[in-house]
Amino acid sequence: MAQDSGSRTLISAAQLRRGKGKYLYWTLLTLVVLGFTLVFIGPLYWMVTGALKTGQEVAQTPPTLWPRHPNFSNYVSAWQNLNLSKLLFNTFYYAAGAVLFQLVLDTAAAYAFSKLRPALGNVILGAMLATLMIPTIVLVVPQYVTVIDLPILHLNMLDSPFAIWLPLVTNAFNIFLLKRFFDSIPEELMAAAQVDGAGPLRTLWSIILPMSRPILGVVSIFAVTYVWKDFLWPKLVMPSPETRTVSVGIYAFSGGSSQNEIIAASVIAAIPTVIIFLLFQRNIMSGLTAGSVKG
Amino acid sequence: MAIITATRPVDASSAAAPATTRRGRKLRDNLTGYTFLAGAILCFAVFTWYPMVRGIIMSFQRTRRGVTTWVGWDNYTRIFADPSFWPAWKNTVYFTVLALVIGYAVPFFVAILLNELRHAKGYLRILVYLPVMLPPASALFLFKFYAYDPSDAGLFNAVLKFLHLPTSQWMQSPSATMPAMVIASTWMNMGSAVLIYLASLQNIPGELYEAAELDGAGLWRRIWNVTIPQTKLILGLLAMMQIVATMQVFVEPLILANGAGTQDSATTVAYLIYQHGFFQNDLNGAAALGVVMLGALAVFSAFYLRLTTKND
Fold first, then answer.
1. Residue A29, by phi and psi: left (phi above 0), alpha (psi -120 to 50) or beta?
2. CATH 1.10.3720.10 placement within chain A
3. What interface predicted TM-score (ipTM) does this complex get?
4. Boundaries of each ABC transmembrane type-1 domain copy (chain B) (predicted)?
5. From the candidates A94, A100, A140, which should be mutated to test the interface with B, based on the most B CB atoms within 10 A?
6. Which of A45-54, A266-275, B166-175, B216-225 is the least confident region?
7. Which of A47, A127, A139 sits opposite B55 (nearest CB)?
8. Cβ atoms B103, B190 nearer than 8 A
9. Is A77-290 in CATH node 1.10.3720.10?
10. What's the CATH fold of domain B75-310?
């Protein structure tokens, strides 16, 4: 990404350095930086500070830019009334399990598709990729019916974390991403490992996985953020107040709590994903474009 | 590590018996391959492949008090007769078109703009993608309570008033409901599209712009004749992905408009599926509506692919 700064884009660099172009460029840059900050940070600022205001101050016109008597009572009461510690723990627990299941099962599958290549492997990969074309909302009802009465076993998985973990394994995009990465690992390395007497599991563990850290990181981050952001599925399969995720919990309380309390809870719910983003933004952004077709 | 050492004797024994026939080895290789695939295949079978089939079967059945019977097209006729059915489709199509007009063009031009800037690139990229990382419920409550507050204390109304523009009732006004939902949805989701466009813009060879400029092409001509043709593939792909995603819009109406809005002004097809399946105790009807939606999207996709491949 660093070398692109030198390459020519729509407007040539020379044009931007000279007289009028330079003036225009800096004006535009300032406007863009200010405008984007306003559009993307502004609402978040409003949200964080709004929850520091009292109910009366929020309702007053014109609104105040900075709370007159900032107090954390909304945050405190949101934390207590919504039982946020429990909700956050639940969400974190589901996210951690989702990472584990996706890493183990999707990596194993991608490894099989890429390196072991069993008979009919491509057919199965095709059947998995085809599920990407099915809109999730169409699958929600039959998936729900399956989860409340698992075929053959006749188990009811409601309120069980497996109801979130196992369906998330069916992430064909992850399998595709991992397979493509494994495909780029030279065959000679595999052959060398085989000559040294390493079996398939040993090769995966000692050769493939250490080389695949970046892509495994991307898959993990996406799994965490997916669980953190997901709404409809956890709402359906985690009906009890004790098993809810944080988004669903806030929604469930939104009717009976004050607006400021809900906003305070929303801020708290957003903190973990924002932190993840700021820490891993490079991996997230490269992962996002890794799967896209070069056009 | 324990697992690894446990599998070792198997390999050792096969190495010790070089007489294994080719067929035997092939069978063993396939067996290893499928051992690695087993977990994923099982999950796909139970949670995706089987439900796909089951959804279609369910749409022709009716379960009442634990007894399931075949009812032919009954679920479909009931769904079509629901007074919310046509409003839901109208709203969904309206949302999709509006999201295409606002949410599709904006990220492309934002990406072009960001690609031209030589400074603050990292900062701007983080800003654009930040809303994507927020839980949708959090972001939507922000819009619902603060931005779309119909009084003058609301963020948007305060800004409009400051600019001496007429204020709006937002979610309380049936005509403003859909645009308001599209604005919120675009703000929340445009980051991914911007970054994908940015990546594909960076793949455009600089010489193309150079040549176009030498031929006297102005800024707009360069966008029209170089940038757009060079990113056509990704533009087409994202258009398709966005349409399929926006056709399933659910959280926005649920949180911003309490589901249906005023007089079905916000009801979408996805919300209607949810409503039938989980409030009206009509999972079979919901499954039928799902099949209708699948059919509609399949027809649309086929049409779209036909249209876009014809141009080539």
1. alpha
2. 77-290
3. 0.87
4. 89-304
5. A140
6. B166-175
7. A139
8. yes
9. yes
10. MetI-like fold (1.10.3720)
